[in-house]
Model the fold of this input.
Amino acid sequence: MSETSIPMTLPLDTEGFLRRECPHCERQFKWQPAEDADDGAESIQSQQVVAYYCPYCYQPAPLNAWWTKEQLEHAQQLMMSEVLAPQLRRFGRQGRQTSHSNSFVKIDVSVPDFPIPEPLVEPSDMIRVDFPCHPEEPLKVIEDWTAEVGCLVCGIRYPLDLVRELPHSSEEEAE
Ligand SMILES: [Zn+2]
Ligand SMILES: [Zn+2]
Done:
């Protein structure tokens, strides 16, 4: 078995946040994905992080463990339509090409249609929180969360009111 990787673009909301899901408590939140440092090795980020903490249940999990069910399903559908279906079709063609020889090998493969999945969309929901200990890693948490929120990087917990983003300045005029 060989590994095939296909590019998958994940939608970000208007503030650049990516939806994630905790593998422990299965609640969703959003983080800001690290920017691709594709301009050479000059900017090696201090990516010593091997785990992130859930803001809700404060459990750590490896960096690649935070896919939402929707994202996993989307990846699976993409894999079907872009990798599996072409392979099956190629296999079917090869079968037909060799069947003119003396062999009795005849393979008929009817490939079901694997449509390319609809792109995921990301609404700009949830409440932004910023952590004093790691201001470079803000999160968005579900609106009805009232307990403490944990920092993604170090797991320190804060009361929601402390780290919640201040209202936008358009509200300043009121009282
Ligand atoms: Zn959790
Ligand atoms: Zn922190």
